[in-house]
Design a protein that fits this description.
By secondary structure, the protein is an alpha+beta fold. The protein contains 16 helices and 12 strands. A hairpin with a 5-residue loop joins strand 6 and strand 7.
Length: 392
């Protein structure tokens, strides 16, 4: 494989990383900019709520924030983006000749101050109310983008389209913006987000691992099930009820009727000696993208494996906060879901001693409740390998 092909493949990988992890978009855009050869790059999205600046590469957004906002909401910009064909990389100069563009107020007042002018542009995808666009830019005094550079951008367009569609789909069912996914991952929970048709739209890494084992829980592009018909029926009843709850007041009464027969927390049997998985089915938060009145909404299925315990870096915890070995061991057990009495029994100490240790832990970590302590430990001291207690 040539060096050029390797760079393209690495850039494509960056695109798919960014599709699943939005914080990776700046790195992705850096790679696209370098591949195509620009001074900076801009990735934008247009939704029903208006144009949004997703991310920039090599441009001071804080310094130029007001100007960027004016660019994205200008009539000139909107007309330009409507004219670019979907799925095809084009130079901006192919739509507006450089001398004509240079004479526009849009260029003189908004683009020239941020070092733009020439652009390689692609609109990877368009939906009924949404689209995405990528622009790799150069100052107007430099040479325009050539055929080889445009071919590189064109190679990326199908992948940018898939990434954009995936981002858009996740946005309708994904509580990522509230930090919920980070907390779920930190807790070691599996997560499957279902769209309003019951089809999996997103699965985190833990859920993928559980599904790949084919031990109790099954999933494909069309839905999720268990290996036992009775548990599958209960799961589907819970999903249907949660969808109605997510649909708002028009469907809430029906949902409450169904929940009498549907368990929203489902045990899923596995092969011995594994204990059952616990599935919790809840309406998914969908701010700004909720279901239409009277229609079912999206659903989140949280997967807990009671056999799998979080492993806290007790050495790091002890050195950071000056905890004793016993105090850090107790804190780790609390983070793993043990109550003080259970933790005391596990450590072979009295409940009074455990409470004394816990009080010391609260003081040294400047936390006041077990929930605060658990949040601190799971966010800052969760070891990379979170294997099961039994060594699985």
């Amino acid at each position: 494989m040539t060096a050029g092909a390797q760079v393209i493949l690495r850039t494509v990988q960056r695109i798919y990383d960014a599709a699943m992890e939005p914080e990776e978009w700046p790195h992705c855009l850096d790679a696209v900019r370098d591949l195509v050869g620009g001074s900076h790059a801009v990735f934008t999205t247009n939704t029903a709520d208006g144009v949004q600046l997703a991310t920039c590469s090599r441009m001071d957004v804080q310094r130029h924030g007001d100007r960027c906002d004016k660019i994205l909401h200008s009539d000139f910009w909107a007309e330009q983006m409507r004219r670019f064909p979907t799925g095809t990389a084009r130079t901006q100069s192919s739509l507006v000749a450089v001398p004509d563009y240079e004479r526009t107020d849009f260029y003189q007042q908004l683009i020239r101050p941020i070092g733009g002018g020439l652009a390689a542009v692609a609109v990877p995808w368009r939906g009924p109310t949404s689209w995405s666009a990528i622009r790799v830019c150069r100052p107007l005094h430099e040479r325009d983008f050539g055929p080889e550079e445009m071919n590189r951008l064109q190679m990326l367009v199908p992948h940018l389209a898939k990434a954009g569609k995936l981002n858009h789909r996740l946005a309708s069912v994904d509580p990522r913006a509230t930090g919920a996914l980070a907390a779920i991952d930190a807790l070691g929970l599996g997560l499957i987000l279902l769209d309003r048709h019951g089809r999996p739209a997103y699965r985190n890494e833990r859920a993928e691992t559980i599904i790949a084992a084919r031990d109790g829980l099954l999933a494909d592009a069309y839905g999720i099930a268990t290996t036992l018909p009775a548990q599958t029926r209960a799961l589907h009843q819970a999903i249907a009820a949660a969808m109605l709850l997510a649909g708002g007041p028009d469907t809430a009464d029906d949902a409450l009727t169904r929940t009498a027969a549907a368990m929203l927390r489902i045990p899923v049997s596995r092969r011995p000696p594994n204990g059952p998985l616990i599935l919790t089915v809840v309406p998914a938060p969908t701010p700004g993208h909720g279901a239409a009145p009277g229609e079912p909404g999206a659903v989140a299925v949280l997967i807990s494996d009671p056999d799998r315990r979080s492993r806290i870096d007790t050495a790091g915890l002890a050195s950071t906060y000056g905890l004793t070995r016993r105090e850090s061991d107790l804190a780790a057990l609390i983070a793993d879901g043990f109550g003080p009495a259970e933790a005391a029994e596990s450590l072979g100490i009295s409940i009074g001693t455990a409470r004394h240790y816990l009080k010391q832990v609260f003081e040294k970590t400047e936390t006041h409740r077990q929930a605060e302590l658990v949040r601190l430990l799971l966010h800052s001291f969760l070891a990379p390998d979170t294997g099961a207690a039994n060594g699985r």
